[in-house]
Amino acid sequence: MSDTHLHFNTGIGVQKPNSIRNKDISCPFCAREELRDIIAVEDSIMLLKNKYPVLENAYQTVLIETDECDSELSVYPEDHLIRLLSFGLKHWLQMEESGKYESVLFFKNHGPLSGGSIAHPHMQIVGLKKIDYKEKILARDFEGLLIHEESDTVFTLSTSPRIGFYEFNVKLSNHEVIPYFAKCIQAAAHYILNAFSFPCNSYNLFFYKLDKDIYAKIVPRYVTTPIFIGYSIPQVPNNLEWMREDMKVRYFSRDRKYKS
Fold first, then answer.
1. At what angle do helices 178-194 and 240-252 cross, to 10 degrees?
2. What pLDDT digit, counting tens, does each position of 32-50 carry?
3. Are 109 and 40 within 8 A, CB to CB?
4. What domains, with CATH codes, occur in the chain?
5. At what angle do helices 178-194 and 78-97 cross, to 10 degrees?
6. Which of 51, 80, 191, 227 has the maximum number of C-beta atoms within 10 A of its C-beta?
7. 3 state DSSP class of 242
8. 35 Cβ contact list (under 8 Å, min separation 6)
């Protein structure tokens, strides 16, 4: 059985720059000529070893999404978004298949409540040597009301959120068909930041590989409810049907309001 807790090195943690809290510090990801331990580059997308490896028994990498510091996944042009997700999925799966790790995390933080520290758009791929994240994942975590289905991609609004209240799921069955997967992820991020029922400036994007399928879960971030913190009881809102229909109209109807 694998370990259940990650150990965080606070000595390294206090050294990390925080451009989300402090707008005056220079962005470390914009100074590309100073970056070290680069693993792979494709146009403006770059994968490199994390300069601040705060997690013990882990191999930490950072995926810089673009050279545009003020950009964001919800507004990327379609070609860049597809290239970014293809790049990220390839390197994540390569780490998974290397046999060096119990499991490999692939995720993105955006905004002040997401747990991130650098505002420049980036993701992280982290190989865990002693923890298998899949032990805590259930099939029902990805069940929900259907928003859209197209070319082996299924987009749902969760009816069994892991934390609550709202969580969007995207299932990819054919790893070769990235465009529809990318389209649904971007729609969820854009909806959270621009059209959500409650104003929101933060979200997380998580990737999972279960059997042959890949899942993405996009979670708007607010202050976590005390009922979940204290008792691990997720809450499900009563307006899921309305939100499902609103997203269909905005992103997947002929007269959709949203344009990337």
1. 120
2. 999 999 999 999 999 999 9
3. no
4. 10-134 (3.30.428.10), 138-252 (3.30.428.10)
5. 110
6. 191
7. helix
8. 28, 29, 46, 48
DSSP state of 144: E
Calculate mean pLDDT across residues 211-226. Answer: 95
Tokens in use for 198? Answer: 């409650």
DSSP letter (8 states) at residue 201: -
Hey, which residues does 168 pair with through a beta bridge? 157, 218
State the residue for tokens 């998974």: 96
What are the pLDDT digits (tens) for 136-173?
999 999 999 999 999 889 999 999 999 989 999 999 99
- Give how far Cα 217 sits from Cα of 79, 101, 105, Å: 21, 22, 13
Q: Residue 221: what are its φ and ψ, rounded to 5°?
A: -115, 125
For the chain, the residue count is 260
Alpha-carbon distance values, 230 to 38, 225, 227, 234, 250 (Å): 41, 9, 5, 11, 36
Burial class (CB in 10 A: 0-12, 13-18, 19+), 177: middle
Q: For residue 113, what are its two tokens?
A: 């409540």
| Model pLDDT for residues 67-113, shown as the tens digit of each residue | 999 999 999 999 999 999 999 999 999 999 999 999 999 999 999 99
pLDDT of residue 167: 97
- Portion of the chain with pLDDT greater than 90, in percent: 85
Edge-to-edge strand list for the sheet holding 144-150: 38-42, 45-49, 58-64, 122-128, 103-110, 203-210, 213-220, 168-172, 153-158, 144-150
